[in-house]
Amino acid sequence: MNYLLDALCKKLEGEIAVAHANIKTYERNSIGIGEHPELVQAIETQVEIIAHAEDKLNVIRNHFG
Questions:
Q1: What is the maximum alpha-carbon separation in the chain?
Q2: I need a labelling partner for 9 at 20 to 30 A (CA). Which of 2, 19, 28, 58 fits?
Q3: Would you call 34 exposed, middle or buried from its count of C-beta atoms within 10 A (0-12, 13-18, 19+)?
Q4: What CA–CA distance (Å, rounded) separates 23 from 59?
């Protein structure tokens, strides 16, 4: 895989890691998150970020190795 695709994979992996961290924060400290009164929706948004990034990673890996 060339360096540009490798860089993109790392970026997408970082987005996944941030979304995971956000979900863990919502799970552990939901009381302290005042700007997210709808926690289920906030978690769903993070799940969508993970799904989108994983889809892109799968395309890169399947088509470009």
A1: 44
A2: 28
A3: exposed
A4: 25
The number of distinct structural domains making up the chain is 1
5-55 pLDDT, tens per residue? 999 999 999 999 999 999 999 888 766 566 656 888 889 999 999 999 999
Residues 7, 60: Cα–Cα separation, whole Å: 11
What Cα–Cα distance (Å) separates residue 34 from each residue in 23, 40, 46?
Answer: 15, 14, 17
Q: Which two tokens stand for residue 62?
A: 């399947």
| End-to-end Cα distance, the chain | 6
Q: Residue 29's domain spans which residues?
A: 3-64
